[in-house]
Amino acid sequence: MINDILLYVGSALIIIWGIAHIIPTGAIVRGFGAISEDNKKIITMESVAEGITLGFVGVLVLLVTSLAGSHSQAAHIVYLACAVMLIIMASLTAFTGARTSLLPYKICPVVKTVVAVLFILGTVW
Q1: What is the biggest distance separating any 2 CA atoms in the chain, rounded to whole angstroms?
Q2: pLDDT single digits (tens) 33-63
Q3: What DSSP letter does each residue of 39-64 carry, written as one string?
Q4: Where is 8: in which H helix or E strand?
Q5: What is the reported pTM?
Q6: Residue 9 is inside which H or E element, if any?
Q7: Dihedrals φ, ψ of 32, to 5°?
Q8: Distance (Å, rounded) from C-alpha 74 to C-alpha 122?
Q9: d(CA 59, CA 13)
Q10: What are the φ/ψ torsions at residue 87 (nearest 5 degrees)?
C-alpha cells in the first residue's frame, strides 16, 4: 500500500512538473530576445518536448500502477526505467539549465531526482 502511494505521489509530481514546463514556453522564447524564427521554433520544441516527456513518464507509472498493479515484474521494470530516465534528465539539467540564474531550472534536477527516488522506493518497498 505504501509503495502505491509513493508511486502515485511521484506520478502526480512529475506530471505537474511536465505541465509547468509547457505553460511558460512563450515567455521562455521571448526571454531570448531577438533571435531567428528557426531558433524560436527549436527552443519551443525543446521546452514542450521536455514537458511532454515528463508528463509521459508520470502517466506511464500512473497507468501501470492503477491498471496492472505495482507488484508485477513488468511494473518494476517500468518504474526503474522511468527512474533511470529521470536521473539522466536531472543530470543533463544539472549541467545545463541549472547553471543559469533562473530558479525553476535550478530546482528542476531536484524535482526529477526526488521523483526518481519515489519510483525506486515504490518498487522496493
Answers
A1: 52
A2: 999 999 999 999 999 999 999 999 999 999 9
A3: HHHHHHHHHHHHHHHHHHHHHHHHHI
A4: helix 2-22
A5: 0.94
A6: helix 2-22
A7: -80, -5
A8: 14
A9: 11
A10: -65, -40
**What grid cell was written down for 38?**
528557426
Amino acid at 30: R
116 by DSSP, 3-state: which?
Answer: helix
Measured CA distances, 14 to 58, 75, 98, 100 (Å): 6, 18, 17, 22
Q: 58-109 pLDDT, tens per residue?
A: 999 999 999 999 999 999 999 999 999 999 999 999 999 999 998 999 999 9
Q: Please tell me the total count of domains within the chain.
A: 1
Reported as half-sphere exposure (CB side, CA atoms, 13 A), residue 40 has a value of 10
Residue 81: domain span: 2-124
Residue type, 55: G
